[in-house]
């Protein structure tokens, strides 16, 4: 009766029966690749589970990155007990990791697509000041894999290409926002916003635009203070001199004046 049952099944069903309950990769292979998010600098692991292995058979696990086998002997990546471990990962560690399990003469595999979260480093400072007419360059240095999309905002409004003074350039490290001949209307909060398949990040800076004469204000203030001080000193000295003259005139006694007058008369008589 058992033989008749197998004969009545299609060949494909017979194959599935043979492997069912004999070997299971244990990570949902039928669902296709699994997307994993890796954070730079934090321990990251991938697990290749073997839930069921047939008796009297040998099983081995191999790991590949982007099609090249990983030996696991480096201090950066280790492999043990079917687990791949990356200590202090960097952005270059992103990619396709494949767990290949060899059981007797059959091979099974599962692929992990590993991405890194996007981030902006360093973040913008809180604010910056420029003089009207100067040029401004804001550099947004981004990290993350796959390469994140970058959008610039001015006061939460996407910056377009309708102003010839404003240019957005893609660079090897991210993106630059350049503004030539700053105007008063350029005073605003500028935001660099980035995103990819596994996350997003942003950084904002306040740009202040000062009047052209703003640089002279401290100097003009000093000149005004010196002018006021000199005026005060001049008025004070003039009043003090006048007061001393009046006091010296009133301090002379009548006898002193008579003696002085007699001396003048004697001088005239002798002449």
Automatic annotation (TrEMBL):
PROSITE patterns: IG_LIKE. Residues 242-271 are annotated as: Disordered. GO terms for biological process: sarcomere organization. This is Neuroplastin. Residues 10-109, 118-208 form the Ig-like domain. Keywords: Membrane, Repeat, Signal, Transmembrane, Transmembrane helix. Residues 258-271 have a biased composition (Basic and acidic residues). Residues 1-28 form the signal peptide. Pfam families: I-set (PF07679), ig (PF00047). It comes from the Eukaryota. It comes from Scolopendra viridis. The keyword Signal applies. Coiled coil: none annotated. The chain crosses the membrane at residues 215-236. GO terms for cellular component: M band. InterPro entries: Ig-like_dom, Ig-like_dom_sf, Ig-like_fold, Ig_I-set, Ig_sub, Ig_sub2, Immunoglobulin_dom, Striated_Muscle_Regulatory.
């Amino acid at each position: 009766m058992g033989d008749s049952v197998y004969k009545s099944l299609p060949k494909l069903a017979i194959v599935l029966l043979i492997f069912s309950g004999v070997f299971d990769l244990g990570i949902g292979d039928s669902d296709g690749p699994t997307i994993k998010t890796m954070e730079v600098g934090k321990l990251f692991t991938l697990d290749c589970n073997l839930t069921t292995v047939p008796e009297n058979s040998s099983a081995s696990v191999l790991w590949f990155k982007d099609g090249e086998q990983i030996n696991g002997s480096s201090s950066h990546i280790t492999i043990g007990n079917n687990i791949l471990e990356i200590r202090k990962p960097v952005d270059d560690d992103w990619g396709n990791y494949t767990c290949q399990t060899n059981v007797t003469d059959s091979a099974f595999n599962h692929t992990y697509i590993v991405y890194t979260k996007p981030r902006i480093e360093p973040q913008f400072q809180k604010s910056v000041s420029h003089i009207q007419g100067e040029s401004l360059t804001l550099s947004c240095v981004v990290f993350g894999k796959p390469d994140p999309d970058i959008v610039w905002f001015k006061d939460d409004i996407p910056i377009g290409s309708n102003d010839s003074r404003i240019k957005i350039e893609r660079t090897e490290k991210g993106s630059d926002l350049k503004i030539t001949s700053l105007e008063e209307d350029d005073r605003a909060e500028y935001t660099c916003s980035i995103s990819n398949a596994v996350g997003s990040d942003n950084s904002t800076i306040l740009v202040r635009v000062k009047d052209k004469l703003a640089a002279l204000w401290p100097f003009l203030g000093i000149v005004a203070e010196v002018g006021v001080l000199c005026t005060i000193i001049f008025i004070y000295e003039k009043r003090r001199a006048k007061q001393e003259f009046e006091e010296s005139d009133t301090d002379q006694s009548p006898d002193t004046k008579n003696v002085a007058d007699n001396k003048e008369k004697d001088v005239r008589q002798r002449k």
